[in-house]
Amino acid sequence: MIGGPYERTLVMLVAAMAERNGHTAQAILPDAGLVLYEDRQLRIIQATPPDKVLLRGDVDITNSPALADALAGVTAEWGRVTVDTEGLRFIDVSGWRILVGPHPRRGPRPRLLNIAPCVHRLNQRMHAL
């Protein structure tokens, strides 16, 4: 987690240098960004560009409401969200529904980027039912 003032300053400098050279901060510091939620299992990070969210760890029934809230907040502010799931090790049906299920009240479904194997497997199983 990016926490102290020195770490935040370093991240801002790296981001500025990366953008000046035609890159993004994530190319240099993959987890650089605003931590929207963190518990023992899951870290949700708002990255650059600000409509991109990184997921790291495990999503289950205990933290899927936090995932829904984080995505709703980013969607409300920036429109359709891109979710990078590469850092997920596990996802259960409650998390899958937030990422892939219908969203009649929450706006557009997020775009998925770097789909983790656990998300792919669960998606295949759910569509086989």
Look at the helices and sheets and give the structural class. Answer: alpha/beta
Number of helices: 5
Main sheet strand line-up: 1-2-3-4-5
Radius of gyration: 15 Å
Tell me the series of helices and strands, N- to C-terminal. HHEEEHEHEH
Write a brief structural summary.
This protein is an alpha/beta fold and 129 residues long.
Characterization of the model:
With 129 residues, this protein is α/β, with parallel strands linked by helices. It is 43% helix and 24% strand. The protein is built from five helices and five strands. A five-stranded mixed beta sheet has the order 1-2-3-4-5. Strand 1 (34-38) and strand 2 form a beta hairpin. The protein is globular.
Topology readout:
Elements: H1 5-20, H2 25-28, E1 34-38, E2 42-46, E3 52-59, H3 64-78, E4 82-91, H4 93-100, E5 111-113, H5 117-128
Parallel strand pairs: 3-4, 4-5
Antiparallel strand pairs: 1-2, 2-3
